């Protein structure tokens, strides 16, 4: 059917729009768009680089050379840091640290946050309580929350993991709750209820699949925020502690030598920029392909 | 083509000044990724000064794009690719954009379909009217005083106070009046009204149509009225243009065209419409198939796949519009063009013999039902305030019979239906199914298997992620059909509703609205219910599709002995399908009884007004004295005391201040001499008045 | 309007109360005894015990909380364990620096974000749309600290146009003060304006498709007037709300930016206090940050309400 007369919009042909084809196929369709392909390619390259770090730099991130703060040379393409360690190696290992945080903390946050948002299904009181809890978390500016976490459990990977996880909860929780409210009132959901389909079946069959899509898009968006959280906390010295490298931690120390050795911050800075760019492109592509019908 | 248009014009032209608007050979195309869609194809039409031209067609006919092309407001990626639009001697398609902008609003103005979205929510109505004057050079102060005059002219009460209100503070009908005021601001000589009453209720529609008629008479404005409703055309237009598949298939003066159609589409469409004055002795002669997709028009005459007169020539060559039939009439048909008359349709009798006896023990009974739709949020002080959308309704449906439920939007009819099937919870009263109360656990199960629901919106009621087979399987599973037998059952169900096995594994988006509604019916039938609650099942469909679904529902009822609670705002559809009818106003039933009795001798003034407001597709009805209600439906949050209808009642305290009883005492449903029940202290008085006229 | 505030108030008060509880509990959640942490590694058991009493750790938890809350309301914020000076004095000395930074950055964010968004939302040609899109995406992907470092390298190290380290109060010497302020403010504001711009753009795109725009065209209104009177007006609401939400991030970003540009503000104080477990200072700063973030958000919601009569008049 066309909608020319009623909406004055573009005529739609009978070409399939949003079909019942599996979620995975729609996500893959997002990757076939130019933005999606660029984002996925970039991310893939970065992940590959991080995975290959031990092979590329057998000396590891902590191998100290003789000269500190040396410029670029054949042995050290980006020079060395204040302790004579290869900046390139440390950057790649730093990327490894960042990815290990992002790829665990963000999914964990998405899953827990979504469950918190959906908890209203089990009981109205539980749902309202969770909503209040998320409101409180949302009241905390990101880094302030991170500082509170550090205050309790000290600095390190775990503190960053916990910070990223907790800061994301309201984002996913609210999204899930809003989605639930919309999806539960769809006419086909009512139709299933009138047929007498059990509540649990209605939820898993008709309601949840439509809530998942926006959560996935949000997770891609939140990856960028998570990068900022890691880097922000590390830059002020509350993140990953030496000698382990992370992109943010390298920016922290590198910033001290800006005038003598600008490449020190440029390496990790560039990788960080590429990482955020990859996730920004991906989330844009997913958003267009999955949410806009 | 031009020569023909010219010919028609001179033939029609009883005014010497020439036409106000003369569109010739207009083409508008949409270039999309899937190809070029010709939405408007070689359309010619003429609007005479001070006259009303109706452009009528179903969805995809190109009527709205035609209207927008005239003002050069075709949405992206649309392009006008050919033709001329002559307006007072100028070709609008050749004007520069600044000249065109100067003309919009000052010489040609437009009224949109949905007053809800056509007004800017953050600007006052006064500003929005004044802006139409300011952009054409008026000063701020004069613009404002003119805006005030306009508000008064379109009948906004208390205009001085309301001029600084925002759109959301007005009701739908009042907003449409504001949109009309904006259109009138520049004193245009042509008003293009794009489905101006489609989004409104019948009583409000009657108000707006009356207003447009008055403006035409008082100000001499010509109107180009785009509509899908033949009734609106018959009652308000001087000339009519019928569009199909992007082309004009028939045109002429309204009296001539409604008396005798020269194109089979026009003829069959009129026959397919249910009538207010005849019941269901015969099936509606529905046009088979569906309106074509403009992206994939059939070759030759676009109507040929659905036409009962189609010949070989119709399949290959497009017929031109040629004068034929009465004075000023022309049509584009190879067959009638040769002088072959359109044969009358064979009346298909309803399967009267097969029809299971109505009456008997009621399957579904509703007693004193009250439903609270209040938000549940506490007021500032104390308890949450209840809002009863349904307030003490009783009704019953027996096997094989149809109870029609009519009322305007907001009267609570959908809430009632949803409460019966258990989506909403009743605050008081009970629903019993075959003797078991639906409130009990056992009763709830009985309800699920005995009562099913058909939704209004065929697009929203099917899960887009699930195939038709999956949707039907879910329902069959509920009936307890074992898995291996479900495939056979599912295909039997689809055949039952006029689809076939090849449709089973497709997703809903592959179907048209009518087909989806068939699927929705099949799903409801899957649990073998005894009663179907049909909530406006045809109101979202095109007229030609509507007749198909009505026929399907009728034959299912008669073959399976189903009982229907059929909810609609369209009185003629209800008349066609129902045995008994109940009229609902603001949460209460105000009149109920056998359908013929209620329609011929309505006893409640609201019923009388509803019947009188419904446009009928015949020109003889124009002369009748219409009862147009004033005002809007009050909010159920704060219903009027006594009789709820008294604030709009033509025989109540508004007209007779001495009738205090209407304010003080609530009327109850009581039997009237004519046989039906009516809840009015002065039941029957209205019918006498109407009869005397 | 009043009803709108009354409706929002309970949840705002709840969030603020809950924040004070969290902040109060923080030292007690950490492993180890706050008193021994505060006393430092070389303290004798007697000193620790004395400190326990001084910090009030021997009293019931509720009592401690109420005392602490009382202190917050009366300005008795306690003493920094690190600097051995009253917390209020420490904060007072650094407040101006942070206020200058955030106010300047917020103004920049509003101007650049809305400006860029309106440009992108009204752009018609392919080229200007593409430019706007690319700028937005780049800004979005650019974290404040990276923007800061880039600015430092470019304008501070390579070209040496502006000072990159330290500060002078704007109130004391406007000309020099602004020179010190400009780079940190840009670094803090510009990345966040990317998301504001994106929001304005998408709500403008949406507004252009509304029926009221068609009605305005049919009235004969020109494109520019439609953009200003109808489209922008309807698109600012979401942007205003977003600015309110971003303000919390702005405070967070200030912490990092102060570090990079060596500004002696509250962010610096917070970082050193966290590092040396100076609970008295951190608690006050946390409560302060949340109060400011929540209040600003409430203010923007009020601003939104004045922009949209549907909210203001309570539908």
Automatic annotation (TrEMBL), chain A:
Gene3D superfamilies, sorted: MetI-like
GO cellular component: plasma membrane
Topology of this chain in the membrane: Multi-pass membrane protein
Matching InterPro entries: BP-dependent_transpt_permease, MetI-like, MetI-like_sf
GO BP annotation list: transmembrane transport
SUPFAM superfamilies documented for this protein: MetI-like
Pfam families hit by this protein: BPD_transp_1 (PF00528)
Signal peptide feature range: none
Keywords recorded for this protein, A-Z: Cell membrane, Membrane, Transmembrane, Transmembrane helix, Transport
Regions crossing the membrane: 36-57, 99-121, 133-151, 157-173, 215-240, 260-283
CDD domains named in the record: TM_PBP2
Subcellular location: Cell membrane
Family affiliation: Belongs to the binding-protein-dependent transport system permease family.
Protein name: Peptide ABC transporter permease
UniProtKB/TrEMBL annotation, chain C:
Keyword Protease: no
Subcellular location: Cell membrane
InterPro entries found in the cross-reference section: BPD_transp_1_N, MetI-like, MetI-like_sf
Main localization of the protein described in the UniProt heading: membrane
Membrane-crossing residue ranges in chain numbering: 12-30, 101-119, 139-161, 181-200, 239-261, 281-300
CC per GO annotation: plasma membrane
Protein topology in the membrane: Multi-pass membrane protein
Pfam families: BPD_transp_1 (PF00528), BPD_transp_1_N (PF19300)
CDD domains (UniProt xref): TM_PBP2
Keyword set, alphabetical order: Cell membrane, Membrane, Transmembrane, Transmembrane helix, Transport
Any single biological process term in GO: transmembrane transport
Sequence similarity: Belongs to the binding-protein-dependent transport system permease family.
This protein's name: Peptide ABC transporter permease
Organism: Prauserella muralis
Biological classification of the source: Bacteria, Bacillati, Actinomycetota, Actinomycetes, Pseudonocardiales
């Amino acid at each position: 059917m066309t909608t020319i007369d009623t909406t004055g919009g573009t005529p739609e042909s009978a070409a399939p729009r949003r079909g019942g084809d599996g979620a995975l196929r729609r996500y893959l369709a997002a990757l076939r768009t130019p933005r999606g392909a660029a984002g996925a390619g970039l991310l893939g390259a970065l992940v590959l680089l991080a995975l290959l770090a031990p092979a590329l730099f057998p000396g590891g991130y902590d191998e100290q050379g003789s000269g500190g703060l040396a410029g670029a040379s054949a042995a050290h393409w980006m020079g060395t840091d204040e302790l004579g360690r290869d900046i390139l190696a440390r950057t790649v290992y730093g990327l490894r640290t960042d990815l290990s945080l992002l790829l665990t903390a963000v999914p964990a946050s998405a899953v827990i946050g979504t469950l918190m948002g959906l908890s209203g299904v089990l009981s109205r009181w539980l749902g309202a309580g969770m909503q209040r809890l998320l409101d409180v978390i949302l009241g905390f500016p990101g880094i302030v929350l991170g500082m509170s976490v550090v205050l309790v459990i000290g600095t390190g990977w775990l503190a960053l993991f916990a910070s990223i996880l907790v800061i994301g909860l309201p984002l996913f929780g609210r999204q899930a709750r809003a989605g639930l409210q919309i999806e539960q009132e769809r006419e086909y959901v009512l139709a299933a209820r009138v047929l007498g389909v059990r509540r649990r079946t209605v939820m898993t069959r008709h309601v949840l699949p439509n809530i998942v899509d926006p959560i996935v898009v949000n997770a891609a968006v939140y990856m960028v925020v998570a990068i900022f959280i890691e880097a922000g906390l590390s830059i002020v010295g509350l993140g990953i502690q030496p000698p382990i490298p992370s992109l943010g931690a390298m920016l922290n120390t590198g910033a001290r030598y800006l005038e003598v050795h600008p490449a020190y911050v440029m390496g990790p800075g560039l990788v960080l920029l590429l990482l955020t760019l990859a996730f920004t492109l991906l989330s844009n592509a997913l958003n267009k392909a999955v949410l806009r019908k | 083509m031009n020569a023909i248009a010219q010919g028609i014009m001179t033939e029609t032209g009883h005014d010497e000044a020439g036409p106000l608007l003369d569109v010739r050979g207009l083409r508008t195309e949409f270039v999309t990724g899937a190809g070029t869609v010709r939405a408007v194809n070689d359309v010619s039409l003429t609007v005479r000064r001070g006259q009303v031209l109706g452009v009528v067609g179903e969805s995809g006919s190109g009527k709205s794009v035609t209207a927008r092309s005239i003002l050069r407001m075709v949405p992206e990626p649309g392009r006008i690719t050919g033709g001329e639009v002559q307006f007072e001697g100028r070709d609008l398609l050749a004007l520069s954009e600044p000249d065109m902008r100067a003309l919009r609003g000052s010489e040609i103005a437009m009224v949109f379909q949905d007053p809800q979205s056509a007004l800017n929510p953050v600007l006052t109505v006064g500003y929005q009217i004044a802006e139409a004057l300011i952009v054409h050079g008026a000063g701020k102060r004069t613009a404002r005083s003119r805006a005030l005059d306009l508000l008064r002219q379109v009948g906004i009460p208390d205009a001085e106070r309301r001029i600084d209100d925002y759109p959301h503070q007005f009701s739908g009908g009042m907003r449409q009046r504001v949109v009309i005021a904006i259109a009138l601001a520049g004193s245009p000589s042509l008003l293009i009204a794009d489905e101006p009453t489609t989004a409104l209720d019948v009583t409000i529609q009657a108000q707006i149509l009356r207003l447009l008629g008055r403006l035409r008479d008082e100000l001499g404005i010509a109107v180009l009225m785009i509509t899908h409703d033949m009734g609106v055309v018959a009652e308000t237009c001087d000339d009519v243009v019928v569009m199909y598949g992007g082309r004009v298939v028939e045109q002429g003066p309204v009296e001539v065209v409604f008396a005798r159609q020269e194109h089979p589409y026009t003829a069959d469409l009129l026959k397919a419409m249910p009538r207010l004055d005849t019941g269901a002795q015969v099936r509606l002669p529905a046009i088979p198939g569906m309106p074509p997709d403009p992206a994939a028009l059939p070759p030759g005459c676009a109507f040929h796949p659905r036409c009962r007169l189609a010949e070989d020539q119709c399949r290959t060559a497009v017929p031109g519009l040629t004068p034929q039939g009465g004075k000023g009439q022309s049509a584009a048909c190879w067959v009638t063009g040769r002088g072959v008359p359109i044969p009358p349709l064979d009346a298909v009798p309803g399967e009267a013999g097969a029809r299971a006896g109505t009456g008997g023990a009621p399957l579904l009974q509703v007693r004193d039902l009250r439903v609270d739709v209040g938000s549940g949020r506490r007021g500032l002080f104390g308890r949450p305030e209840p809002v009863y959308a349904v307030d003490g309704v009783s009704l019953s449906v027996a096997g094989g019979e149809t109870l029609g439920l009519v009322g305007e939007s907001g009267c609570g009819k959908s809430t009632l239906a949803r409460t019966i099937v258990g989506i909403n919870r009743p605050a008081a009263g009970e629903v019993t199914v075959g003797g078991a109360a639906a409130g009990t656990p056992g009763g709830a199960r009985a309800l699920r298997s005995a009562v099913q629901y058909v939704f209004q919106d065929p697009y929203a009621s099917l899960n887009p992620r699930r195939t038709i087979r999956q949707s039907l399987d879910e329902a069959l599973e509920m009936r307890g059909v074992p898995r291996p037998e479900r495939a056979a059952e599912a295909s039997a169900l689809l055949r039952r509703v006029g689809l076939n096995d090849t449709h089973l594994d497709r997703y809903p988006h592959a179907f048209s609205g009518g087909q989806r509604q068939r699927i929705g019916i099949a799903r409801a039938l899957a649990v073998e219910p005894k009663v179907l609650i049909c909530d406006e099942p045809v109101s979202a469909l095109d007229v030609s599709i509507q007749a198909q679904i009505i026929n399907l529902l009728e034959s299912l009822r008669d073959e399976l002995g189903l009982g229907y609670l059929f909810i609609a705002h369209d009185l003629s559809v209800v008349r066609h399908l129902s045995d008994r009818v109940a009229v609902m106003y603001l949460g209460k039933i105000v009149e109920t009884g056998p359908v013929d009795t209620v329609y011929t001798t309505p006893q409640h003034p609201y019923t009388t007004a509803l019947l009188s407001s419904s446009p009928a597709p015949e020109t003889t009805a124009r002369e009748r004295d219409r009862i147009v209600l004033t005002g809007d439906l009050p909010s159920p949050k704060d219903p009027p005391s006594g009789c709820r209808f008294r604030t709009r009642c033509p025989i109540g305290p508004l007209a007779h201040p001495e009738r205090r009883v209407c304010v003080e005492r609530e009327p109850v449903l009581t039997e009237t001499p004519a046989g039906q029940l009516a809840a009015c202290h002065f039941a029957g008085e209205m019918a006498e008045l109407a009869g005397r006229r | 309007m009043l009803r709108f505030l009354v409706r929002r108030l309970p949840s705002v008060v709840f969030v603020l109360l809950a924040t004070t509880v969290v902040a109060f509990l923080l030292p007690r959640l950490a492993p180890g005894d706050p008193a021994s942490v505060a006393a430092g590694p070389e303290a004798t058991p007697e000193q620790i015990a004395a400190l326990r009493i001084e910090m009030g750790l021997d009293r019931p938890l509720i009592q401690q909380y109420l005392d602490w809350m009382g202190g917050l309301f009366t300005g008795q914020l306690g003493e920094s364990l690190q600097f051995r000076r009253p917390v209020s004095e420490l904060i007072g000395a650094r407040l101006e620096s942070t206020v200058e930074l955030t106010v300047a950055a917020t103004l920049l964010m509003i101007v650049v974000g809305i400006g860029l968004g309106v440009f992108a939302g009204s752009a018609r040609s392919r080229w200007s749309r593409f430019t706007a899109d690319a700028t937005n995406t780049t800004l979005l992907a650019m974290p404040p600290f990276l923007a800061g470092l880039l600015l430092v390298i470019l304008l501070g190290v390579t070209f040496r146009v502006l000072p990159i380290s330290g500060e002078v109060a704007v109130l004391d010497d406007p000309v020099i003060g602004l020179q010190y302020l400009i780079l940190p403010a840009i670094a803090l504001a510009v990345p966040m304006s990317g998301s504001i711009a994106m929001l304005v753009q998408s709500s403008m795109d949406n507004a252009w498709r509304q029926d009221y725009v068609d009605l305005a065209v049919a009235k004969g209104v020109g494109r520019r007037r439609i953009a200003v009177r109808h489209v922008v007006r309807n698109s600012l609401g979401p942007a205003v709300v977003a600015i309110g939400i971003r303000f919390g991030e702005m405070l967070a970003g200030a912490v990092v930016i102060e570090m990079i540009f060596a500004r002696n503000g509250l962010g610096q104080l917070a970082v050193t206090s966290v590092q040396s477990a100076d609970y008295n200072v951190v608690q006050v700063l946390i409560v302060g940050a949340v109060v400011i973030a929540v209040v600003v958000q409430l203010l923007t919601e009020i601003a939104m309400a004045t922009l949209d009569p549907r909210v203001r008049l309570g539908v």
